[in-house]
Amino acid sequence: MTAPPDAFQTRAVETSRDNDAGAEGPTPPRPGMVLVVDDEPLIADVIHSMFVRRDDAALVANSPAEALRLASRYPIRLLVTDYQMPGTSGVELAEQVRRLHGGIPVILCSAYAEAPTMAVAPPAAFLRKPFTIWDFDAAVEQVSATPD
């Protein structure tokens, strides 16, 4: 199944607001894509919009099975997943996606108070729902700053 065209964002960012003759032109998107997985479509869409705000290419899946289909078709550089989903946990999904894409960073999201990242090898971060945009940015920066 092919992802719909609006399932990911690949817009380039202008390096100059004025776009004058001295501007270098658009900045290419980062290599690879972010994969956002949550069984609640509204939450997945909100997280996706946070990546769009960062001018980051992101795919959205509403189930672990859909996430694995996307991960097998696209280059994934970061996985953001709900911790508890029907059938497969976020930890199990992270292991499966990492088999396809190496030791990519993982951000686990959960409404539970305890951070389940101990079950996921680094680089990993935990976001407790509900979270703020600042919490989100900090988690992305934390896992992005970790050397590969």
What does this protein structure show overall?
This protein has a five-stranded parallel sheet with strand order 4-3-5-6-7, with helices on both faces. Strands 1-2 form a two-stranded antiparallel ribbon. Helix 3 links the parallel strand 5 and strand 6. It has one domain: Response regulator (Rossmann fold). It is an alpha/beta fold. The radius of gyration is 16 Å and the shape is globular.
Architecture blueprint of SSEs:
Blueprint: E1 13-14, E2 26-27, E3 33-37, H1 41-53, E4 58-61, H2 64-73, E5 76-82, H3 90-101, E6 106-110, E7 124-128, H4 133-145
Helix pairs in contact: 2-3
Task: Briefly summarize what is shown.
By secondary structure, the chain is an alpha/beta fold.
Separation, N- and C-terminal Cα atoms: 31 Å
By CATH, the topology is Rossmann fold
What is the beta-strand fraction? 15-25%
Strand sequence of the main sheet, in spatial order?
Answer: 4-3-5-6-7
At the fourth level of CATH, the homologous superfamily is: Response regulator
Low-pLDDT runs of 5+ residues are 1-28
> What is the radius of gyration?
16 Å
CATH class: Alpha Beta
Binned, the helix content reads 25-40%
Largest sheet entry: 5 strands, parallel
Number of strands: 7
CATH architecture: 3-Layer(aba) Sandwich
Mass-distribution shape: globular
State the secondary-structure class.
alpha/beta
Number of structural domains = 1
Q: Could you give the order of the helices and strands?
A: EEEHEHEHEEH
Keywords:
single chain, 148 residues, alpha/beta, Rossmann fold, five-stranded parallel sheet, two-stranded antiparallel sheet, 4 helices, globular, disordered N terminus
